[in-house]
Amino acid sequence: MTRRDFLWLAGMSSAGLAASGSLVGCATDPVTGQPRLMLMSEEEEVAIDREHAPHQFSNDYGVVQDARLNAYLTEVGQSIAAVSHRPHMPYSYQAVNANYVNAYTFPGGTMACTRGILVDMDDEAELAALLGHETGHVTARHTARRQTQQLLTAIAIGGVTIAAGQSDRLSGYSGAIYAVGALSAGALLASYSRSNEREADALGLDYMVEAGHDPEGMVDLMAMLQNLSSRDPNALELMFSTHPMSSERFNTAKRQARNHPSYDRTQGRERYMDNTANLRRIRPTIKTLQAGEADMARERYSDAETKFAQALKQVPDDYCGLLLMAQCQTAQGKHREADKYLAEAKAAYPGEAKALHLSGVNHLALNRPEAALADFEAYERNLPGNPNTLFLKGVANENMQNRRAASEHYRRYVQLAGDTEQARYAAQRLQAWES
Ligand SMILES: [Zn+2]
C-alpha cells in the first residue's frame, strides 16, 4: 500500500452517516404553545438521535468509564429536564473522553459533556447552566427547525424535483428530505444560529432556576468560557462553532440572572468537586493532550509526540491519549509504532469502536488484511450502521485475494455511499472483475 492509499483510507471518517425521514407538517411549538411549520416529527428527532449519537460519542473517544460521574451528570440533567417544556423526551447525560471544551445534545435529548469542559468548571450551578442551555436546544427543537428551514430553501430553489428524481425508492417531498437530510453526525452538531443561542440561554436560565440552581452559575459559565477563549482559542474552537459565543450573550445572562433569586452554592460546589474528583485528578494530563492536539492541527508532529508522551507518562492507560499518540505516529508514517499504541488502547477500553477503526486501517497499512478485517468486524458489532466500514471490509478482502467477499462489500457500499472517491474506486473494481 502506498502512503497516498493509506491517507485516503485513514481519512475516511469513522462517522459519516445519512439521516432521512418523512414529512409531518405543522406541529405545536413546545416552548410557545403556538403552531409552527415543522417537517420533522418527534419520532424522527428521537430516531436521528439514536442513529447519530453513538457515532459522535465514539468520535469523542467514547463515554468516560466513571459510573459515578455519569450518574451525577444524569442527576443534575434530570432535575432540569423535569421542569422543562419537554419533560417526556428520552434525555441522557454522559461525559465523553474528548479533551476539547464542549457540550452538545442530539435532538432527542442525548447529551454529552467533554472531559475538557468538565475539568474547567468547578460548581454544580455551572453544570446546571450548561445542561440547561443544551436542554433549551432540545425543547425549542432547534435541529428540527434548522432541518425544516433547509428543506424549505431546497424547495424554494427548485431542489425538490432534482432531488426526488435521484431516488427511486422515495418520491416527492420525502425524496427531497432524503437529499437535504444527508447530514453527517458532525453536521448535526454544526452551528446553531445566534438567535437559537439566545433562546437556549434564556430557556436554560429559567430551567436551572426552576430546578433550584443558582442563576449566577450561568454568568460564571460564560465568564469561564470567555476567559478561556482569550487564553486558549484552540480549545474552544469547536464549542464556539456550534454554540456561537458573544459579549451580548454574556451581558444578557448577567442582566437576566439578577431577575432571579439566588441560592447558596456551597453544597453544590462540594458535590461537583466530589463527583468530578477522578477527572480533576488528571486535569494536567487533559491540558497536555489539548496542547498536543493543537500541535497536531498545525502538523507539528514531533511537538505533539513529545506532549502525548508526557501525558502517557502521567496516565499510561489513558484511552484518548493512546489513540492520539497512535494518530500522531501514523501521521508520520510510523505504522509499527502506532500498532503498539493501538493495541494498548484496545486493551484500555475493550470494545470502544474508535480504536478498532484506527487499528483496522493501520493493519491495512502494515499489509495485514486478516487482522484489519477482524478489527472492522469487531467495529461493526460494537457500532453498527457506518457505511464506511463496508468499504474498508471490501479493501481488506481484496487484499486477501477474496474477490467474492470484496465484491459483495463494495456493491453494498456503492449503493449507500453516494458520489465519493471511495465509491468510484469500488465501482471501478466491480466493473473490472465483472469483465
Ligand atoms: Zn448552544
Automatic annotation (TrEMBL):
GO cellular component: membrane
GO-annotated biological processes: proteolysis involved in protein catabolic process
Cofactor binding note of this UniProt entry: Binds 1 zinc ion per subunit.
GO molecular function: metal ion binding; metalloendopeptidase activity
Domain Peptidase M48: 69-255
Keyword presence, Metal-binding: yes
Family label: Belongs to the peptidase M48 family.
Identification of the protein by name: Peptidase M48 Ste24p
Organism the protein comes from: Alkalilimnicola ehrlichii
